[in-house]
Write a structure and sequence with these properties.
57% helix; mainly alpha; elongated
Length: 330
């Protein structure tokens, strides 16, 4: 027990000793280690372990050894506007860089692997140079995302309605088959199964397509709603770096899910299924090879907001410069 106490006391006394140039990353973890070098990009003194790790981060991190590192006061570790968003691909890394070429934010690993030839900036340094707060851009992106959420909710609601209608058609189809089946001999049992199987194949295909669309809508809605919540909280907290970061993340998410929405809409098709009786079947009961047909009528789903957009486009065409010029000449 006494030995343990002395060991803890010794460890505590080591941590309490102040060093002239402490390692920045370690100091953030309440460790007090002497600097082995300095990173000009991160503007942090680095202990031997952190220095070794930085040497693998690419050319963007310019390292100075103990002999050439600056002899100035260390950069403060804590800030009032910290970088807290983590990279989706590298969960253990914080997003701290802005690639101007691609207009995206990324972590140091992404920067060295995907943005080597690009012009990258440390986010706090870049935002210091901004003449306008990114909150305005973030608010605009949020409005677009909310509009996209509304469109996804509309598509999902329409898909759910079509799924119910498809189920109704399935029941009506089966009832028609059974009613007609009572008029014919038991020998038609296999043909009955054949036509019902054909109907079910059409229903299953369409059901899968609709369920896939609903799943895509749910996934997009979840991601978009989470982004809205994070971004709104960031805007309220007035954290410039986080607002800037989230605005770029949100903008990329907006573009990706606009593509998803177009894909869902283009794949939305109405199926009208009816049972068509074979009136000759009773006369040729032993010769027939077909119990009936699965009649399918496809019709592209027209969503309300798409119709409004098309109406706006037609109005713009009527008001085009060509039309105006023609009116002036008369």
């Amino acid at each position: 027990m006494a030995s343990t106490a002395r060991s803890q006391k010794s460890k505590k006394s080591m941590l309490s000793v102040e060093v002239e140039f402490p390692c920045g990353p370690c100091k953030a973890d309440n460790k007090n280690l002497e600097a082995f070098g300095f990173c000009q990009f991160c503007k942090h003194y680095l202990c031997k372990s952190c220095y070794s790790y930085h040497s693998n981060l690419g050319k963007i991190h310019i390292l100075l050894d103990r002999e050439t590192m600056p002899r100035e006061a260390p950069t403060p570790v804590l800030t009032s506007d910290p970088l807290v968003e983590t990279c989706k691909q590298h969960k253990h890394k914080t997003i701290e860089l802005y690639c101007k070429n691609h207009d995206e934010v990324c972590c140091v690993i992404c920067a060295t692997s995907k943005h080597k030839p690009c012009e990258c900036f440390y986010i706090p340094e870049y935002t210091e140079q901004l003449t306008q707060s990114p909150a305005e851009d973030c608010s605009l992106i949020l409005k677009l995302i909310k509009a996209l959420i509304g469109q996804f909710e509309n598509v999902r609601s329409e898909s759910a309605t079509r799924l119910k209608d498809l189920d109704r058609q399935k029941r009506e189809f089966s009832m028609a088959v059974r009613k007609y089946r009572k008029e014919i001999d038991f020998a038609l049992e296999q043909l009955e199964k054949q036509v019902i199987s054909g109907m079910k194949q059409v229903v299953d295909i369409n059901t899968k397509e609709i369920n896939d669309n609903i799943t895509k809508c749910d996934e997009a809605l979840k991601a978009l709603n989470e982004t809205v919540t994070d971004a709104e909280m960031a805007v309220e907290s007035s954290g410039t770096n986080r607002v800037f970061t989230l605005s770029k993340i949100s903008n990329k998410l907006l573009q990706e899910n606009n593509v998803v929405l177009k894909s869902v809409r283009s794949g939305s098709v109405n199926y009208e299924i009816k049972f068509e009786e074979n009136t000759e079947i009773l006369k040729n009961i032993r010769k027939t090879k077909q119990f009936g047909k699965v009649s399918v009528k496809k019709e592209q789903v027209r969503f309300e907001d798409e119709q409004l957009e098309k109406g706006t486009e037609n109005d713009n065409k009527r008001k085009s410069p060509k039309s105006a010029k023609s009116g002036d000449s008369s």
